[in-house]
Specification:
Elements lengths: L1 E6 L7 H16 L4 E6 L10 H7 L4 E4 L11 H5 L11 H10 L2 H12 L4 E8 L6 E3 L6 H4 L3 E3 L4 H8 L3 E3 L6 H6 L5 E2 L4 H7 L7 E3 L9 E7 H6 L2 H35 L4 E2 L6 H19 L1 H33 L4
Parallel strand pairs: 1-2, 1-3, 6-7, 6-8, 9-11
Antiparallel strand pairs: 3-10, 4-10, 5-8, 5-9
Amino acid sequence: QFRGKLQSANPAGTPHMTLLNKFASNVDKMSNGRLKIEVLTSGAIVNPFEILDAVNKGVVDSGQWWTHYATGKHPAGGLFSAPLGGSGSGLDQMGQLGWYFRGGGRELYVEYYTKILKADVMPFLYAPDGPECFGWFKKPVTSVAEFTKLRFRISSGLPSDVLKDMGGVPMNLPGQELIPAAERGIVDGVEWINPANDLPLGLSDVFKFYSIQGLHQAIDIADVVINGAKWRALPPDIQAIVETALTASLFEAMLFFAHENAKALQVLIKQKGVKMFDAPADYAPAFIKSAKKVLAALEVKDPFFKKVLDSQRAYANVVVPYTRETSKLSTLISGAAEI
């Protein structure tokens, strides 16, 4: 019998903990109890941003995080889990997964971890939890000019770089500091994750205007990374079970987050008095313009970054024209609910 600990970057009671426990249960059942995985909450052994190093060193058997946590070590991390506006190529979250499985993304993803970051791990994408929302505000934002005047909490790394290029004022704060910072007037607006994660954080107690049309992490896909020695010690059939269970988690997560976010949004609107508004009309063009500048500067500096970006573009050139047409049908279908 094999045993392992998997530490999440998320605290107890959060959606990812539900998904990780489901994954562990699936592995237990499919392996007939030969592999048992104990899922630990954020901080149980190491801090969230230390998970990859801890897994690499064997301090933790496996961990859940996001590749964009490693953008400080190498910026290509942002291209796998949270590419800016679909890397400027038109990929949506499903397109990103298509590139991962069918466009050479998986091979580049493993190369990023093992050769670029030099980590002895076996990584897997496991849970699409995007898109992340545009943000929370005390009044609707009507233009980019208005938005860029705000002291706005946004993810560090590439999203902050884009906001700076747009002329904005990025503030990098962890989740536990968002409410106090808003109450003290340190920030004028914040983005966190999505309705299912934003609701329990209590952002609706401070902000009453919410837009879900963000581009900074329109795609967001979480990872599970497994210590290399632990992975190689598993028999081939157990390895296949783990990989299959993690692939199943991708589908499970898409359905889970769609439902959980929809339910949370209803609570925010009907019980918390939150009012929805559309992102400013000039937001998307301005964001994509700045995102392309940030990406272009990085691909000039780094061959691997360019290699990944070129791969995404090549896949998008084939797939996006088709998905652009099918999205028109999705609009028609959703509109039928109003007839």
